[in-house]
Design a protein that fits this description.
The complex is a heterodimer of chains A (113) and B (112).
Chain A: E1 5-7, E2 10-14, E3 19-24, E4 31-37, E5 43-50, E6 55-58, E7 61-66, E8 71-76, E9 85-92, E10 102-103, E11 107-112
Parallel strand pairs in A: 2-11
Antiparallel strand pairs in A: 1-3, 3-8, 4-5, 4-9, 6-7, 7-8, 9-10, 9-11
Chain B: E1 5-7, E2 10-13, E3 19-24, E4 31-37, E5 44-50, E6 53-56, E7 65-68, E8 75-79, E9 88-95, E10 102-103, E11 107-111
Parallel strand pairs in B: 2-11
Antiparallel strand pairs in B: 1-3, 3-8, 4-5, 4-9, 5-6, 7-8, 9-10, 9-11
The chains are: A mainly beta (113), B mainly beta (112).
Chain lengths: 113, 112
């Protein structure tokens, strides 16, 4: 079963625009992570945000976490064609972290050159 | 190695055949995870090892699925008497202690 749901399911934007994806989850978490998956490949870790953090940045990525609403968002600024991929949020509900991750359904992002 | 290695990359099996999928994690990574990913879906958890101990196998869909990691490094996921619904990409991931997963490229299993 999926713990998280991403919204939207699919997103197409022009190169250079910003892309925002949202994730909602059901139970309390230790941390939430975002992963990218290019077609036919494995997942690549992008960023981890802990339950006591509200915002985190990494290069062109900005992640927010609202534990009261059980939701997170991923913002990719100044998008590039290479950002075309599927993006998944994943939650760790263990007490100490580093146990299984439960993935959402994913957002398929297409950047139009 | 530099990353998580999975083999074979593709496997076509006739229905009823047994298959074995291999995962070679990053050296020193304590935790190893297997996931199943259907087309257009997110990865679904199958099972998890810490060193050689299988700590959680709650996601294995049936008793036809079996995983092992006898020496705490390489892991094998075995599927007996494959069925068409087993067709999927099987992903392996390893993690040290920071909770960040490094995934392999997966094995695409097609049961015909």
């Amino acid at each position: 079963s999926q713990q998280g749901e991403e919204d939207p399911q699919a997103l197409s934007i022009q190169e250079g625009e910003n892309a925002t994806m949202n994730c909602s989850y059901k139970t309390s978490i230790n941390n939430l992570q975002w992963y990218r998956q290019n077609s036919g490949r494995g997942l690549v870790h992008l960023i981890l945000i802990r339950s006591n953090e509200r915002e985190k940045h990494s290069g062109r990525l900005r992640v927010t976490l609202d534990t009261s609403k059980k939701s997170s968002s991923l913002l990719i600024t100044a998008s590039r064609a290479a950002d075309t991929a599927s993006y998944f949020c994943a939650t760790d509900i263990s007490n100490f972290g580093n146990e299984k991750l439960t993935f959402g359904t994913g957002t398929r992002l297409t950047i139009i050159p | 190695g530099a990353g998580v290695s999975q083999s074979p990359r593709y496997k076509v099996a006739k229905r009823g055949q047994d298959v074995a999928l291999r995962c070679d994690p990053i050296s020193g990574h304590v935790s190893l995870f297997w996931y199943q990913q259907a087309l257009g879906q997110g990865p679904e958890f199958l099972t998890y090892f810490q060193n050689e101990a299988q700590l959680d196998k709650s996601g294995l869909p049936s008793d036809r699925f079996f995983a092992e990691r006898p020496e705490g490094s390489v892991s094998t996921l075995k599927i007996q008497r494959t069925q068409q619904e087993d067709s999927a990409v099987y992903l392996c991931a390893s993690s040290f202690r920071d909770g960040v997963f490094t995934f392999g490229s997966g094995t695409r299993l097609t049961v015909v």
